[in-house]
Design a protein that fits this description.
single chain; alpha/beta; 2 domains; binds D-glutamic acid
Length: 261
C-alpha cells in the first residue's frame, strides 16, 4: 500500500498521476485539512505535522510514503527520512532542473508558497540545477487556499494571475515551474495567460515514475483508494469532480473518513 499526503487537495494532482501509473496499487490519500495551508506556517510546525501524518500512514500499513507537497518536502522530508530510515519516501520538489534544461531564453520562474520560496532546499536546488539560467522565485500567497475553495476560474483570480505573470512574461521567462502541487489545478486559468509564450512545468508524472521505481510489493494490491482528512472529510470526495478527477471515484473502497493525527 502506498500513502500519499498533502495539506489539502493539492496532492490529489500527484495521487492521480500515481493512480494512472500503478493501476493495481492500493492507495491511501491523507489531506491535513485541519491545518491547510502549510505555506504560511513555520518550519517547526510543518515538520511536526509531517511526522504525525507520516506515522499515521505507516501505522495503516503503507510501505511507501509520498510527500505530495513541495512545502512539506522543503521543510521536513529530511527529518521524516531520519525518523523512518528504512522507509522509501518520495518527496516533491519544483521542476527547476527540467525547466532550466528546456529554457531557450535563459529565464525561468518558480511559483511557490511563501514557505517553499524562502526555503534553503529550493535555493540549493537552483544552485545545483539552474546555474546557467536566471531564476525568479515568486511566492503566490492565497493560491493554495483558492484551490481549497474550488473557486478556480473566478474573474478576480484570472486578473490576479495575469498581473502576477505579466512581468515575468515581459522579461522573457519561457518556463514557469508550478512549485506547489495545488497549482496544477489552476492550469485552466494559467494556460491561456502564458499561451504561446511560456510552458508550465509540473512534476506529478516524474514523481509517479519515481514511485513506480520504489514501490516494489507496495504496488501490488487490488487497485483500491481510501481518502482520509483531518477535517471536513466530505469536502475531499466532493472536490473530485471540480478538479477533473471523477474517475478516481471508481477506485474508492470506503467513504472518505476523518482521522485524528
Ligand atoms: N500543496 C502544497 C505544496 O505543494 C502546500 C500548499 C499549502 O498548504 O500552502 O506546496
Amino acid at each position: 500500500m502506498i500513502g500519499v499526503f498533502d495539506s489539502g487537495l493539492g496532492g490529489l494532482s500527484v495521487l492521480a498521476a500515481i493512480a494512472r501509473a500503478l493501476p493495481r496499487a492500493d492507495l491511501v490519500y491523507l489531506a491535513d485539512t485541519a491545518h491547510v495551508p502549510y505555506g504560511d506556517k513555520d518550519d517547526a510546525f510543518i515538520r511536526s505535522r509531517v511526522l504525525r501524518i507520516g506515522r499515521h500512514l505507516v501505522d495503516q500499513g503503507c510501505g511507501v510514503i509520498v510527500v505530495a507537497c513541495n512545502t512539506a518536502t522543503a521543510a521536513a522530508v529530511a527529518a521524516f527520512r531520519e525518523s523512518f530510515p528504512m522507509l522509501p519516501v518520495v518527496g516533491v520538489e519544483p521542476g527547476v532542473k527540467p525547466a532550466a534544461a528546456a529554457s531557450r531564453s535563459g529565464r525561468i520562474a518558480v511559483l511557490a508558497t511563501a514557505s517553499t520560496a524562502r526555503s534553503q532546499r529550493l535555493a540549493q536546488l537552483i544552485r545545483q540545477h539552474a546555474g546557467s539560467v536566471r531564476v525568479d522565485v515568486e511566492p503566490c500567497p492565497g493560491w493554495a487556499t483558492r484551490v481549497e475553495s474550488l473557486r478556480l476560474e473566478d474573474p478576480d483570480f484570472v486578473e490576479e494571475a495575469r498581473q502576477h505573470l505579466a512581468p515575468l512574461l515581459a522579461a522573457g521567462v519561457d518556463q514557469i515551474v508550478l512549485g506547489c502541487t495545488h497549482y496544477a489545478f489552476l492550469c485552466p486559468t494559467l494556460e491561456p495567460i502564458v499561451a504561446q509564450r511560456a510552458s508550465l512545468v509540473d512534476v506529478a508524472d516524474a514523481v509517479a515514475r519515481q514511485c513506480v521505481r520504489l514501490a516494489g510489493a507496495s504496488a501490488r494490491g487490488r487497485g483500491q483508494l481510501r481518502l482520509l482528512a483531518t477535517a471536513q472529510p466530505e469536502r475531499l470526495d466532493a472536490a473530485l469532480p471540480a478538479l477533473g478527477l471523477t474517475w478516481l471515484r471508481n477506485r474508492l473502497s470506503d467513504p472518505t473518513r476523518l482521522v485524528v493525527a
